[in-house]
Amino acid sequence: TQLLEQSPQFLSIQEGENLTVYCNSSSVFSSLQWYRQEPGEGPVLLVTVVTGGEVKKLKRLTFQFGDARKDSSLHITAAQPGDTGLYLCAGDTGFQKLVFGTGTRLLVSP
Amino acid sequence: DTEVTQTPKHLVMGMTNKKSLKCEQHMGHRAMYWYKQKAKKPPELMFVYSYEKLSINESVPSRFSPECPNSSLLNLHLHALQPEDSALYLCASSTEDQGSYEQYFGPGTRLTVT
Lengths: 110, 114
What we know:
Radius of gyration of chain B: 13 Å
Shape of chain B: globular
Order of helices and strands of chain B: EEEEEEEEEEE
Helix content of chain B: under 10%
Strand content of chain A: over 45%
Strand content of chain B: over 45%
Largest sheet of chain A: 6 strands, mixed
Largest interface: A-B, 25 and 28 residues
Number of strands of chain B: 11
Number of strands of chain A: 11
Oligomer: heterodimer
Structural class of chain A: mainly beta
């Protein structure tokens, strides 16, 4: 069974702080997606990383895919209240299925 | 346009009712999915349709019955549900491209079974 463990599970910070969320597995994935989900809404795709070692930047968000394609990280610089939500990583198994991570709940207070 | 729409937004039903959830996408995606999500948990895959054919059923109870009338529409028929089936039901769609596999989710239907 392929599992994706995210850490931390919950993070409460002040506006302007930096943070990093980790997504780890013992399995190799062909690609990995990051989603953000707000309460009562569906997950919104933020980024897809495909190549081992790949780094992608989306404004204040930086995503990295591990060299072995087993892990990933999301770094947010100068967090804002609008960044609040549930962050989910999801690994592509290559069999029409995504394996979702356990999730990280982020709360950014003004 | 990366929009997936779902109706209704909220649904309350009794255990003896029959209801249906609807999902629509116009991105030309040929794979569509149903997920169930409980509070503070990640989405759990229920069904996958590929080119309008059911390709994956994750051992979902028969009280949930999916249907894909055409490549843009996906339904989930509900009958004789249990209170523990109360959850957010999400629909998603994706391309079948290899190497970059992205799913686009709808806003979900919040289902309450009384």
